Amino acid sequence: MTTTLPSYPIGTPGVPWGPAEIGAWLSRQTRRRSYRADVLDAIERLRPRHDVVEYGRLDYPPDGYPLYALRSRDWRDDLPVALVTGGVHGYETSGVHGALQFAEDHAADYAGRINLVVAPCVSPWAYERIHRWNPQAVDPNRSFREDSPAPEAAALMRLVAPLRDRVLVHVDLHETTDTDESEFRPALAARDGVEFVPDGVPDGFYLVGDSENPQLEFQQAVLAAVARVARIAPADDEGRLIGSPIVVPGLIQYPVKRLGLCAGLTGARYVTTTEVYPDSPSATPEQCNAAQVAAIRAALDFALA
After folding, report:
1. Range 19-304 classified under CATH 3.40.630.10
2. What is the maximal distance between C-alpha atoms in the chain?
3. Left (φ > 0), alpha (ψ -120 to 50) or beta: where does 130 sit?
4. What is the pLDDT of residues 262-296, one digit of tens each?
5. Helix 19-27 and helix 185-192: axis angle, to 10°?
6. How far out from the chain centre does Cα 126 lie?
7. Contact 129, 90 (CB under 8 A)
8. pLDDT tens digits, one per residue of 79-109
9. Which residues form the Peptidase M14 domain (predicted)?
């Protein structure tokens, strides 16, 4: 039996979008939550304990979005650096709030051991609209490369550039949601003029490692820590997660630098991308945030051991 997938409501199947289609897509996007209330106010509460760095500004008329990172107050040039990034895809909520929760509750545990840089919301326009792309229908998490087409990625690259060779560990916080299959991947296929082929959504937490720098013991240590607070996603019937073969349970790998992913931003020895599943009937926002925090802490502890 052949199932015909519904076409995306914008564009002509098989034809990549042009300016008119991008404009039609943009006209459908509405603000659904507040970057200022959810993120900037939280950063202000953390200011007494962290150095707050404004590393850029996004001007998307009629709105402007200052970009902030938190840095260790007791920064030492003789220590390595840990980078935590959240909200590269703005709709992936626990990445943003997990980064902020780590900064509030656990950053002090690493004082004098490693310098921390936490960029909790890389894509604030998308955060407010609960979307994956920026207003140009560009995915920031495919844009970490020279002459980046995404201002969100370019700003973060400028922030990290002076520290790039000192970063020991980088944890990039993401989610895989049911809307990946119902909205975002169909939109991607329509934008690029290709056929949408569903992959399914993994039922639980998993990691994406760097296929060119696997560090399996590190990835397994992170998975073991997260397993105490969240379900680890089982492979599908073909031994895959989102179309990729599993390396060990809960882990797939991509060539992160070649794909322009945020995880390839530095030369860090220990790099991982988390993927939380917030749409499980048994998952709560608190549990999703806790899984992100557990992953960050396990990554730092392993790197420092």
Report:
1. yes
2. 63
3. left
4. 999 999 999 999 999 999 998 999 999 999 999 99
5. 160
6. 12
7. yes
8. 999 999 999 999 999 999 999 999 999 999 9
9. 31-303
Position 6 scores a pLDDT of 59
Q: Give the length of the chain.
A: 305
The tokens for 74 are 């007791």
Residue 275 annotated among the catalytic residues of the structure: yes
H or E, element range at 129: helix 124-129
How far does Cα 40 stand from its chain's mean position? 18
Query: In degrees rounded to 5, what are phi and psi of residue 206?
Result: -150, 170
More confident residue, 66 or 200: 66
List phi, psi (to 5°) of 205.
Answer: -85, 140
Which tokens in the block code for residue 264?
Answer: 């390839």
Strands 240-241 and 167-175: unpaired
Q: Which of 104, 85, 39, 84 is nearest to 66 (CA)?
A: 39
The predicted structure's pLDDT at residue 4: 44
Residue 147 CB burial class (10 angstroms; 0-12, 13-18, ≥19) = exposed
pLDDT at 1 over 50: no
Distances (CA, A) of 190 to 6, 18, 111, 141, 285: 11, 11, 47, 18, 31
Looking at this protein, which amino acid is placed at residue 245? P
What was the pLDDT predicted at 199? 86
270-276, strands of its sheet edge to edge: 50-60, 63-72, 115-119, 81-86, 167-175, 270-276, 206-210, 251-254
Beta partners for residue 209, in sequence order: 253
Q: What are phi and psi of 142, to 5 degrees?
A: -125, 20
Tell me how crowded residue 262 is: count the other CB atoms within 10 A of its CB: 30
The catalytic position among 92, 146, 275, 286 is 275
Question: Could you tell me the two tokens for 215?
Answer: 């560090």
Q: Are 271 and 253 in contact (CB under 8 A)?
A: no
